């Protein structure tokens, strides 16, 4: 298969690319290497993490309609994994126009070309943030998600609605995967695990929001990748699926495991809840498990793997 991965220099995108190339698929990557976080990490994923692999890389933006169409026309794409997006809840509150421009208009460009060039399957990243402050736990795909509480969440909800339109009008096979708190080696520096590790090693305080009363289905990157590929291979008609860990973990436990892996106790600054954030996200993953997928990695192993990678990458002794 010839598979286009948007955001392929990103955390999840590069991991998907590697796994798919390991099994013999041909990979096309588009990424704009923006500076939301240090672009050198994105460059390193391409040059180090994917070293020795053969793939086609387009340095460009999914908002560039002509470039997107050129890629589909030239490369004869079979399937799409669409991960390119502006991420992060707090940054979106400062720059809502940017988030809607990239996440919504960029996605429409891809969907237009996917239909025109008869793509067999289109899998894209939505987010657990669409559930907002829903009180029912765990979050199920059938729950109402009409009250997002951040521009980021609203942009992902909009993507799901637009995807349904394209599936309905054109018969495009398309699945929205609602990701739940992804972590692991080569991760994003704006995520808690990365920031916690950096500050603990430097002897600085870590900011613990909602005074530590937070819980998540932390999902290891390898489990996310296996879920994405499961959906990519299934070629389902339109659907929305949660993809997350199968265990609710308290933030305090997450920090404790990290402290154990680092051999250092964190200096904690207890903080109130941040705007746009939610105290708990817990996934009902029964739909995806019916396809034979299940998460394999517990936080004890996943965090240890991240710490090992972090120390090697940043040459920490």
Strand order of the largest sheet: 3-2-1-4-5-6-11
Taken as a percent bin, the fraction of beta residues is: 15-25%
Q: What top-tier CATH class fits best?
A: Alpha Beta
State Rg: 19 Å
Order of helices and strands: EHEHEHEHHEHEEHEEEHEEHEEHH
CATH architecture: 3-Layer(aba) Sandwich
User: How many domains, in number, for the residues?
Assistant: 1
> Per the principal axes of the C-alpha atoms, what is the gross shape?
globular
Unreliable residue stretches:
none
State the CATH topology: Rossmann fold
- Provide the residue-averaged pLDDT: 96
Largest sheet: 7 strands, parallel
Distance between the termini: 42 Å
Please count the beta strands (DSSP E, at least 2 residues each): 14
Helix content: 40-55%
Count of discrete alpha- or pi-helical segments spanning 4 or more residues: 11
CATH superfamily: NAD(P)-binding Rossmann-like Domain
Based on secondary structure, the structural category is alpha/beta
What secondary-structure arrangement, pairings included, does this model have?
Layout: E1 2-6, H1 11-22, E2 26-31, H2 39-49, E3 56-59, H3 65-75, E4 79-82, H4 89-94, H5 96-116, E5 121-127, H6 151-170, E6 174-179, E7 182-183, H7 192-201, E8 205-208, E9 215-216, E10 219-220, H8 221-234, E11 239-243, E12 249-250, H9 251-262, E13 267-270, E14 280-281, H10 286-289, H11 299-313
Parallel strand pairs: 1-2, 1-4, 2-3, 4-5, 5-6, 6-11, 7-10, 8-13, 9-14
Antiparallel strand pairs: 9-12
């Amino acid at each position: 298969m010839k598979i286009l991965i948007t955001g392929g220099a990103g955390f999840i995108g590069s991991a998907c690319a590697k796994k798919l190339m390991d099994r013999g698929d041909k990979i096309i990557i588009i990424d704009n290497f923006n500076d939301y976080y240090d672009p050198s990490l994105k460059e390193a994923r391409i040059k180090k993490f994917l070293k020795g692999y053969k793939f086609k890389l387009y340095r460009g933006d999914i908002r560039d309609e002509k470039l997107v169409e050129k890629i589909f026309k030239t490369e004869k794409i079979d399937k799409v994994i669409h991960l390119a997006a502006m991420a992060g809840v707090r940054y979106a509150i400062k720059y809502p126009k940017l988030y809607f421009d990239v996440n919504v208009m960029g996605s429409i460009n891809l969907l237009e070309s996917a239909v025109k060039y008869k793509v067999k399957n289109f899998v894209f990243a939505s987010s657990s943030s669409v559930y907002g402050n829903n009180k029912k736990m765990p979050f199920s795909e059938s729950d109402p998600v009409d009250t997002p509480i951040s521009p980021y969440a609203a942009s992902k909800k909009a993507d799901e609605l637009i995807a349904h339109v394209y599936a309905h009008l054109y018969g495009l096979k398309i699945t929205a995967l609602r990701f739940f708190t992804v972590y692991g080696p080569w991760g994003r520096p704006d995520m808690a695990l990365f920031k916690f590790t950096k500050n603990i090693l430097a002897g600085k305080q870590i900011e613990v929001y909602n005074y530590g009363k937070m819980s998540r289905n932390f999902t290891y990157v390898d489990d996310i990748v296996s879920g994405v590929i499961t959906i990519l291979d299934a070629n389902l008609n339109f659907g929305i699926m949660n993809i997350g860990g199968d265990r609710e973990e308290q933030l305090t436990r997450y920090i404790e495991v990290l402290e154990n892996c680092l051999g250092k106790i964190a200096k904690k600054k207890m903080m109130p809840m941040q705007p746009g954030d939610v105290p708990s996200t817990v996934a009902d993953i029964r739909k995806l498990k019916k396809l034979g997928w299940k998460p394999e990695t517990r936080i004890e192993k996943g965090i240890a793997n991240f710490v090992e990678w972090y120390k090697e990458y940043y040459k920490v002794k």
